[in-house]
Amino acid sequence: MGDLANCPRCSALFLTGTSAVCNQCRNKEEQNYQKVYAFMRKKQNRMASVEEIEIATEVSEKQIREFVKQKRLHPAQFPNISYLCEKCERPIQDGRICERCKLEITKGLKRHESNKELNSKKKVKEDRTYYSVENK
């Protein structure tokens, strides 16, 4: 059984478990999805951008991008729709971050690993150095 929580959208109390929002907000979200999907099913609207969909359906851009991110709307079927990279907020159609951010993170990890190796070599060298004290 779920826990009692406040809905992040309307602050109403609800039981968590099946959804992250209350039933009213979930129903509203489903209605919005049906509006967007009905609009996108029409052949002349399949190439519509997120902004055009927002104007035509009166569903927020954020919600439309969330439908894409949840894979409820597929960019393969509707090529001009996307959602935002979690790091830089560039439009993407797959994954959580864009290719540029992936490369940046990979370079940072490699740099960190090389620094780590360099520091460990320096420590080993220091551990192997012996100092003698002359008795006078």
From TrEMBL:
Keywords assigned by UniProt, alphabetized: Cell projection, Cilium, Flagellum
Protein name, per record = Flagellar protein YvyF
Lineage of this protein's species? Bacteria, Bacillati, Bacillota, Bacilli, Bacillales
- InterPro entries found in the cross-reference section: Flagellar_operon_YvyF
**Superkingdom, taxonomy of origin:** Bacteria
